Amino acid sequence: KYYLKDRNNEYYKLNQNNCITTITNYKNIDKIDNINFYKNLKITNFRIDLLDETYEQTIEIFKRIEDKLK
User: Fewer C-beta neighbours within 10 Å, C or N terminus of the chain?
Assistant: First the structure.
């Protein structure tokens, strides 16, 4: 595994898949609580990026999203 370190000593993971390298944030970004705000802006499509979540964490994320979309 490779990381980039910034001036605040935060580590950004580098993910490589074939010829594409992605730099991920040093912390998880969760905007689920903002879904209603986005819906009020008439945004109807959302993207979910899962990187290294466990199965249980993934299920919990989707439950939270489902609850917000009701």
Answer: C
Q: Each residue's pLDDT tens digit in the chain (70 positions)?
A: 899 999 999 999 998 888 999 999 988 889 999 999 999 999 989 999 888 899 999 999 999 999 998 8
Residue in this structure with the two tokens 């959302």, named with its chain if needed = 46
Is this structure's pTM higher than 0.85?
no
Burial of 3-42, coded b for 16+ CB within 10 Å and e otherwise, reads eeeeeeeeeeeeeeeeeeeeebeeeeeeeeeebeeeeeee
